[in-house]
Design brief:
Layout: H1 10-18, H2 26-36, E1 41-44, H3 51-63, E2 76-79, H4 83-96, E3 106-109, H5 116-121, E4 127-130, H6 132-140, E5 151-155, H7 157-160, H8 166-175, E6 181-186, H9 191-200, E7 205-208, H10 213-217, E8 219-225, H11 231-241, E9 247-251, H12 254-266, E10 271-274, H13 280-292, E11 297-301, E12 315-318, H14 325-332, E13 342-348, H15 353-363, E14 368-371
Parallel strand pairs: 1-6, 1-7, 2-4, 2-5, 3-4, 5-6, 8-13, 8-14, 9-11, 9-12, 10-11, 12-13
Helix pairs in contact: 2-3, 3-4, 6-8, 14-15
């Protein structure tokens, strides 16, 4: 369906045209009209389905005619689990608001950086994107007030409502007006949080975009049997031998991410690590350099993988396997997006072989395996 039939303003349609988006994704066709009508929404869809724009565009419409404020009462609140996702959502708001006649002030706040500049910049913010901990710090400092929130968005709601964030989210809910629009988006909806969504949502529009087998079909999966001590040399061989220009490598720990990055750089392959122990400035620089093609390899952990959203990423390599099959699918799903093909490679030690069989069984797809001993590297 063309965006012109979804009730968006001419200014937003112009911004969409500039980005060369021609047709709405399925989730956008349903969610945009629902948000415009101030309905609650529960959207279950994987990353890369067009979820962010599905709430960004109608929120901009709903706030387009709101007079600029000179206070600290925000109108729309988007709560996200990670700094990277907060920055990414802010960028989408900025992208589509570029053609609006009256600018809508949007801001992202998160920990890991000084709170003082965020406190000073909060005046006049209409749309706030925040991680829970930093949001509560700002509230306690009277830098922001949540009593006039009209719309609450929980992006990655499966993570926002689980035990890791439960205490903080309970505190945030108590600060919000009871009468508000609630928009919840999640890749999955576990039994643990389904009851909570029933309490939060009032007669919601429910949309579930099923995982499509063809998405995985666009990803060429390969696995290499290799000993632990030869993983590093094999990784470097694959990158150089196959002339890979943009590669996302996943490890299971921050220590391993740093070690792999150091070895790559020593062997003439430009790489940067991105994980929770890096400063926010370093993480942003690493991701931006990777997106722009300034570095060849980004080495990341699962903790920040949800903030990595690159439309035409050609290669993902699992240096180490994740704990769960869902995380494996999420990792390889960074490639093969926007109807383009991609390649996902896993380096499997004898100790990991059984776990990889379980992952393949859960995925419903068997991966072609190659014995690294047959390669000269």
């Amino acid at each position: 369906m063309p965006f012109s039939k979804l009730g968006l303003s001419p200014a937003l349609l112009k911004a969409i045209s500039f980005q060369k988006y021609e047709r709405a994704y399925p989730i956008q066709e349903v969610v945009i009209p629902a948000v415009l009508e101030k309905k609650d929404v529960l959207g279950i869809a994987k990353t890369g389905s067009g979820k962010t724009a599905s709430y960004v565009l109608p929120l901009l419409v709903n706030l387009e005619n709101v007079a600029a404020t000179k206070n600290r009462h925000v109108k729309a609140l988007i709560v996200v689990p990670t700094r990277e996702l907060a920055i990414q959502v802010r960028e989408v708001f900025q992208l589509f608001s570029s053609q609006l006649e009256h600018p809508i002030k949007t801001m992202a706040v998160y920990g890991g950086v000084s709170i003082n500049p965020q406190m000073k910049a909060m005046m006049g913010v209409n749309i706030l994107i925040a991680t829970p901990g930093r949001l509560l710090e700002l509230v306690e400092s009277n830098a922001v007030h949540l009593s006039e929130i009209e719309t609450l968005v929980l992006d990655e709601a499966d993570k926002m409502l689980n035990l890791g964030f439960k205490e903080e989210m309970d505190r945030i809910f108590k600060l919000l007006p009871q009468k508000r629009q609630n928009l919840l988006f999640s890749a999955t909806l576990s039994e643990d949080i389904s009851g909570i969504t029933e309490i939060l949502l009032r007669n919601p529009v429910v949309l579930k975009i099923e995982e499509e087998t063809e998405d995985l079909e666009r990803i060429n999966q390969l696995g290499y049997f290799v000993s632990e001590e030869k993983k590093g040399p094999l990784l470097r061989y694959l990158i150089k031998h196959n002339n890979m220009k943009q590669v996302l490598v996943f490890t299971s720990s921050t220590h391993k991410a740093d070690m792999v990055t150091e070895k790559l750089c020593k062997n003439g392959i430009d790489a940067m690590a991105m994980h929770s122990k890096k400063s926010q400035e370093t993480r942003e620089r690493a991701l931006n350099n990777f997106k722009r093609g300034n570095i060849r390899v980004l080495v990341a952990t699962d903790l920040i993988s949800r903030g990595i959203d690159i439309e035409f990423l050609p290669h993902v390599i699992n240096y180490e396997l994740p704990r769960s099959p869902k995380d494996y699918i999420h990792r390889i799903g960074r490639t093969g997006r926007a109807e383009s093909s991609g390649e996902a490679i896993s380096l499997i030690t004898p100790e990991e072989a059984h776990h990889f069989k379980i992952i393949q069984k859960k995925m419903g797809k068997w991966v072609t395996m190659i014995d690294a001993e047959s390669l000269e590297f």
